[in-house]
Write a structure and sequence with these properties.
Order of helices and strands: HHHHHH
Strand content: under 5%
Shape: globular
Structural class: mainly alpha
Low-confidence stretches: none
């Protein structure tokens, strides 16, 4: 069995673990989609911010509220596409309304 983090004494296999994570995300796992998005957002390779945006949006569509906040940050910073302050604000508000405390804190700091 492959795992991306080497848990339970299983040998770490990042390639196989990443493939399993991607497959889970493609099959509708919000948690997996958010992890895929995070991996792209942390990468410094060209084009990965746009892919992070897409995966965070997918995770949010699947019900992962914190992904709205992460997507908002990318949108506000113009990572992976044009900066859009109005859309970033809207996404933060949706995340806060959905119960994301960090999004609510970010909104309070903006006021």
């Amino acid at each position: 069995m492959a795992t991306s983090d080497g848990e339970a004494g299983i040998e770490r296999d990042r390639v196989a673990g990443s493939a399993l994570l991607l497959r889970a995300a493609q099959r509708g796992s919000a948690e997996a989609a958010a992890r895929v998005a995070y991996a792209f957002a942390r990468s410094h390779a060209p084009g990965t911010d746009a892919r992070a945006r897409a995966w965070y949006a997918h995770a949010a569509d699947l019900g992962r509220v914190s992904s709205l906040r992460h997507l908002a940050i990318l949108v506000l910073e113009g990572r992976g596409g044009p900066a859009d302050p109005a859309e970033g604000q809207r996404l933060l508000e949706l995340a806060a309304q959905g119960g994301d405390a960090r999004a609510a804190e970010m909104l309070q700091q903006k006021r």
